[in-house]
Write a structure and sequence with these properties.
Layout lengths: L1 E2 L4 H16 L4 E7 L6 E6 L2 E6 L2 E2 L22 H8 L19 H10 L3 H17 L12 H14 L5 H12 L27 H4 L21 H22 L5 H4 L5 H5 L2 E9 L2 H23 L5 E17 L2 H8 L11 E3 L5 E2 L27 E14 L10 H12 L10 E10 L2 E4 L7
Parallel strand pairs: 1-5
Antiparallel strand pairs: 2-3, 3-4, 6-10, 6-11, 7-8, 7-10, 8-9, 11-12
Helix pairs in contact: 3-5, 4-5, 4-6, 5-6, 6-8, 11-13
């Protein structure tokens, strides 16, 4: 937070350098600024701690007092929509002690409201930890690509706690699936009535954008917003399918025929769930340019998903995976660079890393130091790491595709991809000499994903 004379542009242009100088170059292992996202953000890893850093300049203040409370609605005066979203959703390490574990990607104003609206905080905490683990394991936890984020899952659990105020944590988990699998969407999930005021609040009767929310979960803090505006038709289908699965498993547990470990089994996105995939590959020859470019592309993947959903007579489901995959390649010619941009991993020189909302964490390896990603089989030569050549940094985001029975062999999705690329390339910092974006169709054979352009030509 800053006083009114510090502008958002100052934050994104100057703060990364200031942070590195004060923290030390080795303390900041990754930093990606995404100023053009719905909530402008800097994503970084500081001393091995992942942080989403959001900025707001308070128009009504010349200085920022140390004891400033974000719950004061007067702080919203004079802010634009990006500023309001920022102050409503900052990452805070100073939030209520009972809710710090929830706030890693949460909002202090929203968090305080949630805690005040649940009957038993301890029960809420226990149930939410279980639901967040389940959502992460089932690959439906990522606001940026069209699934509920941490705060949205918290509000769903809080609503169930309100419905069953005397239940213990395990019962809340079971009732969570029971209630949410049959929720009459787009009826919104709300923890209290929406507070009216000078600022814009969620209202589908007035705002067309709010009316398009298909699974609205409304934040309780003023001004109320939809925390799940990103969810698409495909996302809703996947979420409801997982809720139904969760309900069956928890019922079996309560009947003595199942185990809690069954609920938390990992997804099979790459190995069983889909036959066809799209690989969205953002690349650059400069590491920093690749990070910034990939952050922008990741924030736009949901646009490609919605474009694919328009082909409803041919495409039944377009499901984005919740993480991207970072790779570094060493090539010896431009032809090899072209291969990498189309998805080849023959020249990979580092372990594949998964990319969530900040810097990557290592994928589980096969025990021999090479990346083990289902469906992606790197063939890197570790001896080539120090050889002279062309270095290319790529970030790949995957979309699983389910075709309808009416889909023809010559289904063409080039128009959807062209629109998606035009949106990404409209980024103010886009440089055609630095940034490249390719969308490649793949097909799963057994447990592997291979190049395929016979059914999904781009």
């Amino acid at each position: 937070m800053a006083p009114r004379h510090v502008k958002r542009e100052d934050f994104f242009d100057l703060f990364p350098t200031v942070l590195r100088r004060f923290a030390g170059p080795s303390a900041v292992s990754s930093l990606t600024a995404v100023p053009d996202s719905f909530v402008p953000i800097i994503k970084l890893v500081l001393n091995n701690i992942e942080i989403d850093l959001i900025f707001v300049a308070i128009e009504s203040l010349q200085t920022i007092p140390k004891d400033l409370s974000l719950n004061d609605n007067k702080l919203l005066d004079g802010l634009d929509q990006a500023g309001i979203r920022a102050i409503t959703g900052p990452v805070s390490f100073a939030c209520h002690s009972a809710c710090r574990w929830m706030c890693a990607h949460g909002a202090q104003r929203v968090t305080d409201e949630i805690l005040s609206l649940v009957p038993e905080q301890k029960t809420f905490r226990t149930a939410l930890r279980a639901i967040k683990l389940w959502a992460q394991r089932r690959a439906i936890y990522a606001n940026i690509v069209g699934y509920p984020g941490g705060v949205a899952w918290a509000m769903l659990v809080a609503r169930v706690c309100q419905l069953y105020p005397h239940a213990v944590g395990a019962t809340i988990v079971n009732k969570f699936f029971f209630v949410m699998k049959d929720w009459q969407w787009p009826v919104p999930v709300m923890l209290k009535e929406i507070e009216q005021g000078k600022e814009k609040v969620w209202n589908p009767a007035i705002y067309p954008g709010d009316k398009r929310n298909i699974m609205p979960i409304i934040t309780p803090a003023y001004p109320s917003m939809c925390a799940t505006y990103n969810i698409s038709k495909s996302g809703k289908t996947v979420i409801l399918r997982e809720l139904e699965r969760g309900s069956q498993i928890t019922n079996n547990i309560f009947y003595g025929n199942g185990r809690w470990s069954d609920l938390f089994k990992k997804h099979t996105f790459f190995t069983q769930d889909h036959k066809y995939y799209l690989s969205v590959i953002a690349s650059s020859r400069k590491a920093d340019a690749a990070k910034a470019w990939s952050g922008l592309v990741e924030s736009k993947v949901r646009i490609l998903v919605m474009q694919l959903e328009l082909l409803s007579d041919m495409i039944n489901l377009a499901r984005p995976y919740t993480k991207g995959f970072k790779r570094v390649h060493q090539c010896e010619s431009e032809s090899q660079v072209a291969e990498v941009k189309k998805g080849s991993m023959k020249y990979q020189i580092e372990e594949t890393k998964t990319v969530a909302t900040t810097d990557p964490e290592l994928v589980t390896t096969d025990g021999h130091g090479s990346a083990s990603l289902p469906g992606v089989l790197p063939d890197a030569n570790p001896d080539g790491a120090n050889a002279e050549g062309l270095i290319l940094h790529t970030y790949t985001f995957y979309i699983g595709i389910d075709l309808t029975p009416q889909a023809t062999k010559n289904l063409n999705i080039s128009a959807a991809i062209s629109y998606f690329k035009s949106v990404c390339e409209a980024w103010t910092n886009y440089n055609s000499e630095l940034h490249d974006l390719t969308v490649v169709p793949n097909k799963r054979y057994g447990a592997a994903v291979a190049d395929c352009d016979d059914v999904l030509p781009c």
